[in-house]
Design goal:
CATH architecture of chain B: 2-Layer Sandwich
Strand content of chain A: 15-25%
Structural class of chain B: alpha+beta
CATH class of chain A: Alpha Beta
Largest sheet of chain B: 3 strands, antiparallel
Radius of gyration of chain B: 17 Å
CATH architecture of chain A: 3-Layer(aba) Sandwich
Shape of chain B: elongated
Order of helices and strands of chain B: EHEHE
Number of helices of chain A: 5
Strand order of the largest sheet of chain B: 2-1-3
Strand content of chain B: 25-35%
CATH topology of chain A: Rossmann fold
Distance between the termini of chain B: 6 Å
Structural class of chain A: alpha/beta
Number of domains of chain A: 1
Order of helices and strands of chain A: EHEEHEHEEEEHEEEH
Largest interface: A-B, 19 and 12 residues
CATH superfamily of chain B: Phosphoribosylformylglycinamidine synthase subunit PurS
CATH topology of chain B: Mth169, Chain: A
CATH class of chain B: Alpha Beta
Helix content of chain B: 25-40%
Oligomer: heterodimer
Number of strands of chain B: 3
CATH superfamily of chain A: Class I glutamine amidotransferase (GATase) domain
Number of domains of chain B: 1
Number of helices of chain B: 2
Number of strands of chain A: 11
Largest sheet of chain A: 9 strands, mixed
Chain lengths: 248, 86
């Protein structure tokens, strides 16, 4: 059983949904981690959940990004551990500098709360490990500030390094302006770090991880993390066996 | 002792779309103020610093802007320091 951490800030409100998805739907280990904790080394994966941390004061995610736990999240990420930031969690990762760019007010000025379709743009990350490039997932969004923005150079770098993991698309998989719920540059719904082990996305996979909630596509993202951890464990085991054989 | 009143103006960079500003612009025009060409919304943060011994006040506040008060990806800032003898 793997151990997932769900970080809890004052104002997080999707923490319990993430916990439920990991623990009860997927049957993995899961713990809430208060934002004042400074050590995440006992975990296999970290979830930065959605909500309104610190009431979105100053800028969304700005205050939470300075919490003691975020140093531990950065350490966890630099050791190659998978970190997924969902909605406000994405905003926090961006403010913490773990992902580039910024999430600004939706171009419509409205809070959007609806199902969207997102296309998988790469499947070599821990979060898309079981998926195919071009797969379209149906996942809900709920945010007022999900409009992804970065500089021209920043966008070019993201594309050159293939760091866009999800794009808003039509159900047929076309990244059109109509499919874009918030005005995000280039229909960006989710991006990853250079090494691919940190993902930020606005849609909420934890809200559609079981049929009861109207959709199961979100579960594919969590299951991917588990398959990716399995693959890493197998690789480590193989390396250990080879090392033992070499010693013998 | 000196007291410092600092005004930090944080504005969206010109390249960043400001939908709030656009709404205000259209509301002003609807009110008959057709002369308004553009409207942009920013933030004003006022700081009171009672002891300036931590270092040059403007430099310190600039550092605060870089670390927290503004997001350099989307915002520019302007710092105005006013000195008072108390």
């Amino acid at each position: 059983m793997y151990r997932f951490a769900v970080i809890v800030f004052p104002g997080s409100n999707c923490d319990h949904d993430c916990y439920h998805a990991v623990k009860h739907v997927l049957g993995e280990g899961c713990e809430f981690v208060w934002h004042e904790e400074e050590d995440l080394s006992r975990f296999d994966a970290v979830i930065v959940p959605g909500g309104f941390s610190y009431g979105d004061y100053l800028r969304t995610g700005a205050i939470a990004s300075l919490s003691p736990v975020m140093k531990a999240v950065a350490d966890f990420a630099s050791n190659g551990g998978p970190v997924i930031g969902i909605c406000n969690g994405f905003q926090i990762l961006v403010e913490a500098g773990l992902l580039p760019g910024a999430l600004i007010r939706n171009s419509s000025l409205k809070f959007v709360c609806k199902w969207v379709d997102i296309r998988v743009e790469r499947n070599d990350t821990p979060f898309t490990y079981n998926l195919e490039v071009g797969d379209v997932l149906r996942i809900p969004v709920a945010h007022g500030e999900g409009n992804y923005f970065t500089t021209d150079e920043g966008l070019k770098a993201l594309k050159d390094e293939s760091r866009v993991v999800f794009r808003y698309v039509t159900p047929d998989g076309e990244a059109s302006p109509e499919a874009n719920p918030n005005g995000s540059l280039d229909n960006i719904a989710g991006i990853c770090s250079e090494e691919g082990n940190v993902l930020g996305l606005m849609p909420h996979p934890e809200r559609c991880a079981e049929e009861l909630l109207g959709g199961e596509d979100g579960r594919l993202i969590f299951e991917s993390i588990i398959s990716w951890l399995d693959a890493g464990r197998d690789k480590r085991q193989r390396a250990e066996i080879l090392a033992m054989k070499a010693d013998a | 002792m000196k007291e410092y009143r600092v005004k930090v103006e944080v504005k969206l960079k010109p390249v960043v779309l400001d939908p709030q500003g656009k709404s205000i612009l259209s509301a002003l025009r609807n009110l008959g103020f057709g002369e308004v060409e553009d409207a942009r919304i920013g933030k004003l943060i006022e700081l009171t610093i009672k002891d300036g011994s931590a270092g040059d006040v403007e430099e310190r506040v600039t550092e605060m802007c870089r670390k927290l008060l503004s997001n350099p990806v989307i915002e520019n800032f302007d710092v105005k320091v006013e000195e008072k003898n108390v």
